[in-house]
Structures are given as C-alpha cells and as structure tokens.
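>> received
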Amino acid sequence: TNLAIEEIEDEEINETTGEFPIEFEGLTNWRDLGGWTIKSAEGQLFHVRKNYLFRSATPATGTTQDIRILLEHIGVKTFVDLRAENEYLENEKTCPYRTL
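>> returned
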C-alpha cells in the first residue's frame, strides 16, 4: 500500500520510540513517526507505517549532506514545510531543500 497509515485490530496496538539510527549534520529532532497507533473519529484504529513518514524540528538547519542522505539513503520524495511564513522567510536563502 502507498498510504502512510493502515487499519489494524485492537490487539495490534504497539508503541514506538521514534529513534532513528542515522546521524545528521544539521537536522535536529529527526524521527520516524511510524509505529504510532491513531484512532479515527469513527473509532477505527490505524497504524502509521514505519520508514514512511518523518519529521524534523527545524528543516532550515539541514545541510546539503543531510538532504543527500534523505534523498539517496532514506528515499524521501516529498518535503512538507509546516513553518509559519515568517519562519520560512527568515531562513529562505540558507534552506538546502528549497531548490529541490
């Protein structure tokens, strides 16, 4: 499946540590969001797939080497920047993925 989540049964609930074995030069608080169980408004349980959805604290601190690791070794295909507009504009020229 190509979805980040998959439906599960109650007995399949588990926890995740969110630990990630790769060291980055500039990205901080990078972790895999996979492994978490979420519940829909209708009460269905879903499991977030591991190695599919990641997050980072401040994407602007990532180096060119960090971006190379994300693209070539982890296989990241899409970057979604959820910072406020002023946060983005403050780091616009130094953010290595802005030209991807």
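>> The radius of gyration is 16 Å.
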